[in-house]
# Entry
Amino acid sequence: MSALPGSAEGTAVTGLDSSAVEVHGDLPPLTETTRAECREIMARYPVPRSALLPMLHLVQSVQGYVSPEGVALCAQELGLTKAEVGAVATFYTMFKRRPTGRHLVSVCTNTLCAVLGGQKIYDEVAAELGVHHDETTADGTITLEHAECLAACDYAPVVTVDYEFYDQQDVAAALELVAALRRGEKPDPTRGAPLTDFRGVSRQLAGFSQHADAAAAQAAVDGPSAGVPTLRGVRLAAERGEAAPAMPAAETAAPAEAGTPDRTPTGDGGTPGAQAADAEVAAAGNPAERSGAEQNHPDRPEPAGRAAADRDAPAPDADGQAQSGSGTSVQREV
Ligand code: FES
# Structure
């Protein structure tokens, strides 16, 4: 039985009321390279089917949406049914059921953004573009969607383009933003990495670099991060002498086993990242900032839950290959 996302059968199987997935004959093909990259993603996980979400992002990066062909490829590689893959693909709004434009413009219309003008922004942008939710402009440049909370309420009203943030927008700014996108420009987000496009960011979400070279990737990493509104709570806590309680994971993490890297912060800055984190801890001006810096330190102890998951992973044999019979096979999980 066919049970692709959006099909009547799929809806019956998954219980999700989903619109029909569209079939297009002029899509870029999913090649053997795509299949090899799917397997590369699968190899990152102790249980292969844990790779499904990034694999869906990968096929979306090639074809602009999760096509029936993409569902079939993921199902085939993971040993799942198309219905199982479809149930996942139709649950998450980041997976699209019809081809997406070059850019995905998401306007938050959730409570805080809405009362500060988000709904007005959405209405005006929709009228300007001549499209409604989940529709693409005739020139293929923009797919518009209204979004639930984009997790940036302190910057409301928020618009994202390909998941990059454009904070504290108003109608005029949002209209200029979409006009620039239609002219082929890529205005700098107000924080985070430089804007690319929907397929590029989908590839990044699959765990592959979307940048042409290492310098471009580093520039994206070095993009501006959180600004004044997000830090306001930290400053208020510092003024009041408040600090976050210590994470319980440090006390309950499993003891390191032989051959397991010791992740306890040493303060000797073994890597450039650890050196920067050491400096950040040392420079903390109050308990709240120090607590935050310690939580972000790459050498802090692994959380207890992660350690438990690691213990379930197949033990490597003498050749470094995962052994069977460890109880973590796909067959048992499926
Ligand atoms: S309500 Fe818009 S980002 Fe949270």
